[in-house]
Amino acid sequence: MRDFASNNRNRLLSVVGLIAGLALWELIGRLELSPAFPPVTAVLAAVVEVWTSPRFLDALKESLISVGLALPPSIVFGILLGLLIGRYRPVEWAFDPLVNVFLSLPLVALIPVLFLIFGLGRGSILATIVIYTFFIVVVNTAAGVQTTDPRVVEMARSFGGNERQILRRVVLPSALPLVFAGVRLATGRAVRSDVIAEQVIGLIGLGGLVQRLGGAFAVEELYAVILFVGLFGLMSMEAVAYAERRALPWAKGPADPDAGLQGA
Question: Which sign, positive or negative, has the C-alpha torsion 151, 152, 153, 159?
């Protein structure tokens, strides 16, 4: 009962904070302190027009294609490499420095290199998404594997379990909360890296639309697109969190992604 009341209070505080932020935004817009801050009501009015326009829908389709092509293989191969790094010391010694280097590199520094390698077009955008999502899945999966209780592993081995059985029935289930945390982070990073790459490289998709609207000083329409990108990223991450709750009913909630990063 106490947890229920606490959750309701937290939700109420979140709603109050959101309303207060929107009210402040509306006030700044009405005072016309800056052309960069139109009233929130003007932005919401532009949302309906922009989100239903053919130009926006075409841009959304391009972005979804890029994310859909790049994110799934990043997750699959990231989990596989993370399992190997977390389970086998020689693999960790071989790949850990490379993983940490790519994880710490700023995305903007990589884009010119990817542009030189893959040229102007979707190839560079896909490579940007892969690099920005693959390594976060690797790190969280490896951290999840390394948190497996060694006593459980030894017990499984004493009952005649071979390495493949131990990986499939002991190590992977134990690592799943942090694996899902890595997937959740990668999903948000995929949306962000796609928009950034489209702005800098391809000028297609939602990133290209943001760039063109900004250049035309169409501020209300620009905020409408940015709002969609933020909501889309949030909803994608929440969808992964929902899948985690369904797949891991024994877990108390979505795992903390920072636990994987700290464990790395």
Answer: positive
What is the total count of domains within the chain? 2
- CA angle 172–90–148, rounded 5-degree value: 25
Whole-Å CA distances, 264 to 88, 165, 173, 178, 258: 14, 25, 19, 12, 10
Rounded-to-integer distance, Cα 167 and Cα 220, Å: 52
Q: Are 127 and 249 part of one and the same domain?
A: yes
Nearest by Cα to 3 from 261, 119, 11, 199:
11
Instruction: Output the pTM of the full model.
Output: 0.83
Q: Are residues 94 and 24 in the same domain?
A: no
Residues 81 and 146 in one domain: yes
**Parent domain of 28:** 1-37
Give the DSSP H/E element, type plus range, for residue 142.
helix 122-146
**Sign of the alpha-carbon torsion through 130, 132, 135, 136:** negative
Task: Give the model confidence (pLDDT) of 66-81 as tens digits.
Answer: 999 999 999 999 999 9
Tens-place pLDDT, residues 114-155: 888 888 788 889 999 999 999 999 999 999 998 887 788 778
Q: What is the dihedral of CA 72, 75, 80, 82, to 10 degrees?
A: 170
Based on the fold, state whether residues 20 and 59 are members of the same structural domain. Answer: no
CA distance 6 to 70: 40
Say if residue 25 is in the same domain as residue 89. Answer: no
Tokens of 242: 């929902």
Judge whether 260 and 139 are in contact, CB under 8 Å.
Answer: yes
Select from 249, 258, 232, 220 the least CA-distant residue to 63: 232
